[in-house]
Design brief:
InterPro entries: Cytochrome_c-type_ET (IPR051174), Multihaem_cyt_sf (IPR036280), NapC/NirT_cyt_c_N (IPR005126), NapC/NirT_cytc_sf (IPR038266), NrfH (IPR017571). 62% of the residues lie in helices and 0% in strands. It has 154 residues and is an all-alpha fold. The termini are far apart.
């Protein structure tokens, strides 16, 4: 009898643990619809003070088919993509709702590295023979935000 109660207790504990893990994953990643919506440029522009950047992107030719996350988040590793999406997203929410958004938004050093890696990833066949020591937008000044913010045209 005692052995059955012990097994039943473990089964209940494992079930509760499993459900808890699933709930934690769901809460961490959000409902699939919210996750998908948060990958859109409209979502990014909804609470950022990014109207100029959004408008510039919307008229950006070929890059208009790309979403903000295609350039601004790591895309070579799904886990890192969602880790940085969470970090950057929470940082943006905190800045926005605490009225701490700077007048001019500058891309961070990490952000520059991510954007550069994504430029190279998308344009690999074009840039494989080019010296990659310079940042792509040092020459391509109108890509992608066309003279707005830290990638401003000289």
């Amino acid at each position: 009898m005692g052995n059955k109660k012990g097994r039943r207790g473990w089964l209940i504990a494992l079930t509760v643990l499993g459900v808890g893990i699933l709930v934690a994953i769901f809460l961490a990643l959000g409902p699939p619809q919210l996750l998908a919506k948060s990958e859109t440029p409209n979502f990014c522009a909804s609470c950022h003070v990014m109207e100029e950047e959004y408008d510039a992107w919307a008229h950006a030719g070929a890059h208009r088919r790309k979403a903000c996350v295609d350039c601004h988040l790591p895309n070579d590793n799904l886990a890192l993509h969602y880790v940085w999406k969470s970090i950057d997203g929470m940082k943006d929410v905190l800045f926005f709702y605490s009225n701490q958004v700077p007048e001019r938004i500058e891309i961070s050093g990490h952000g520059k590295a991510v954007v550069q890696a994504n430029c190279i990833r998308c344009h690999e066949t074009t840039v494989d023979h080019i010296d990659q020591k310079r940042l792509c937008w040092e020459c391509h000044r109108r890509v992608p935000h066309r003279g707005v913010g830290s990638m401003q045209t000289l």
